[in-house]
């Protein structure tokens, strides 16, 4: 029976799962984006988001609590330094999962999980893109051809006028 099953065990023992999620969380914090399977990404999201929330308050106790999960000093420095400054005003939802398709070897669904505030392509512009208008070929040709014909006609006599003077 699966009464009160709250999380995916990922087919691993508790100690293996804890160390795997800790390693993945360290990689996510250090590199800001990692590629993994969808099931692992969803488990990692539940694992790392409370740690990022805890890192918003930079106190000795919160550092010790996060260190008990991650066991990596460089990741703790990165999390409490750069990451906590970027997500300081965000009320939650620090990670984003984007599905990529399936892995070639075993057809496992693959995705990448990233920290939301560190994606330069998503953050650079939130302006709506200019919508392309559809035009018929006829109206486009007549509008563009008329000015082009006038410029050619006005430039040709000037070129001919300069040529005889040079002789």
Spatial strand sequence of the major β-sheet: 1-3-2
Total helices: the number is 6
Unreliable residue stretches: none
| Number of beta strands | 3
Shape: globular
The helix-and-strand class reads: mainly alpha
In helices, the fraction of residues equals 55-70%
Order of helices and strands: HEHHHEEHH
Instruction: Report how far the terminal alpha carbons are from each other.
Output: 102 Å
Q: Whole-number radius of gyration?
A: 29 Å
Mean pLDDT: 84
Largest sheet: 3 strands, antiparallel
Percent of sequence in beta strands: 5-15%
Describe the structure.
The protein is mainly alpha-helical and 167 residues long. The model has no long low-confidence stretch (mean pLDDT 84). The protein has helices at residues 14-31, 38-55, 60-70, 73-86, 120-124, 137-166, and strands spanning 33-37, 95-102, 109-115.
């Amino acid at each position: 029976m699966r009464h009160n099953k709250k999380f995916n065990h990922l087919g691993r023992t508790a100690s293996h799962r804890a160390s795997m999620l800790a390693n993945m969380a360290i990689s996510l914090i250090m590199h800001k984006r990692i590629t993994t399977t969808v099931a692992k990404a969803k488990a990692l999201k539940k694992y790392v988001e409370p740690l990022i929330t805890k890192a918003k308050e930079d106190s000795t106790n919160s550092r010790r609590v996060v260190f008990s999960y991650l066991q990596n000093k460089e990741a703790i420095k990165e999390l409490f330094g750069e990451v906590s400054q970027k997500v300081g005003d965000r009320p939650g939802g620090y990670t984003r999962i984007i599905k990529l398709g399936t892995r070639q070897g075993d057809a496992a669904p693959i995705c990448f999980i990233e920290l939301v505030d560190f994606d330069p392509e998503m953050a650079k512009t939130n302006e709506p893109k200019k919508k392309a208008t559809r035009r018929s070929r006829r109206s486009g040709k007549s509008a563009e051809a008329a000015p082009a014909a006038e410029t050619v006609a006005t430039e040709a006599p000037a070129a001919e006028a300069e040529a005889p003077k040079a002789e």
